[in-house]
Amino acid sequence: MARRSFKAGTLLAPLPAVMVTVGDMENSNIITIGWTGILSSDPPRTYISVRPTRHSHKLLSERGEFVINLTSERLAYETDYSGIYTGAKVDKFEKLGLRKIPSEKVAPPTIDGAPIALECRVFEVLHYGTHDVFLADIVNVSCDESILSGDKICFDKAGLMAYAHGEYFALGKKIGRFGFSASKEGKKKRRSSARASEMKSTPKKPRTTPRKNQSGGRK
Ligand SMILES: Cc1cc2nc3c(=O)[nH]c(=O)nc-3n(C[C@H](O)[C@H](O)[C@H](O)COP(=O)(O)O)c2cc1C
């Protein structure tokens, strides 16, 4: 298939748009962050990239702790709102009617209703380009009990949403699990998706409808 190139840009997608809480139980703020990811499994480490102009940057630098609250379709409005209004002018918790829950190991609160929350402690700050990168240890993880089945966190119950270059998407159905390509079902799935794309690329025969003669009727 033909491809086109565009000017270099930050087109990695999908990304999670997360609601990051900073500060403490009394003086806290929420900032929406798209530039985030995992650095290491063991120890579990993450990062967030924050512009120095953000109100949250100051609170983050002072305390060195933050909570990554994963967002869901139900929190889509709150996520967007927290990404366009500044905590320097508005109390986002109050305005959005969000309840603060004390986090287990860090001072910034966890947002009630966030399916999963990662409590983080900063160990280094890197200054790259437009954003400062806060590298952090994940020191505790909590989840809303509504997405548990026994002790298992069920991501398909979380209603997670994704962010892709300015647009939010609801995550659709689960289509596989880690390692499925090595299983029998995975191989079957591959064969059936190959068949489906073959059918798509085979041009359809043009429909042949008998043409009526000029006088309109049959002779
Ligand atoms: C979907 C989305 C993703 C965003 N990602 C980032 C980001 O990764 N880093 C950043 O500094 N700002 C990001 N922003 C912008 C901030 O969230 C926004 O400027 C916010 O109002 C800052 O809040 P504060 O001034 O209260 O800290 C994002 C906004 C949206 C809507």
Describe this structure in words.
This protein is an alpha+beta fold and 219 residues long. It has 4 helices and 13 strands. A hairpin with an 8-residue loop joins β6 and β7. The C terminus is likely disordered. It binds flavin mononucleotide. Flavin mononucleotide binds next to β2, β4 and α1.
Order of helices and strands: EEEEHEHHEEEEEEEEH
Helix content: 10-25%
CATH superfamily of the domain at 18-170: Electron Transport, Fmn-binding Protein, Chain A
What molecules are bound to this protein? flavin mononucleotide
Rg (CA only): 24 Å
CATH topology of the domain at 18-170: Pnp Oxidase, Chain A
For the sheet with most strands, the description reads: 7 strands, antiparallel
Quick one: CATH class of the domain at 18-170? Mainly Beta
CATH architectural name of the domain at 18-170? Roll
Count of helical regions: 4
Give the overall average pLDDT: 91
In short:
By secondary structure, the protein is α+β, with helices and mostly antiparallel strands. 18% of the residues lie in helices and 32% in strands.
Question: What descriptive keywords fit this protein?
Answer:
4 helices; 32% strand; binds flavin mononucleotide; 219 residues; alpha+beta; single chain; two-stranded antiparallel ribbon; 13 strands
Which helices and strands, and how do they pair?
Elements: E1 18-23, E2 28-33, E3 36-40, E4 45-50, H1 55-63, E5 65-69, H2 76-82, H3 92-96, E6 100-101, E7 110-111, E8 116-128, E9 131-143, E10 148-149, E11 152-153, E12 161-164, E13 167-170, H4 184-201
Antiparallel strand pairs: 1-2, 1-5, 3-4, 4-9, 5-8, 6-7, 8-9, 10-11, 12-13
The structure holds flavin mononucleotide.
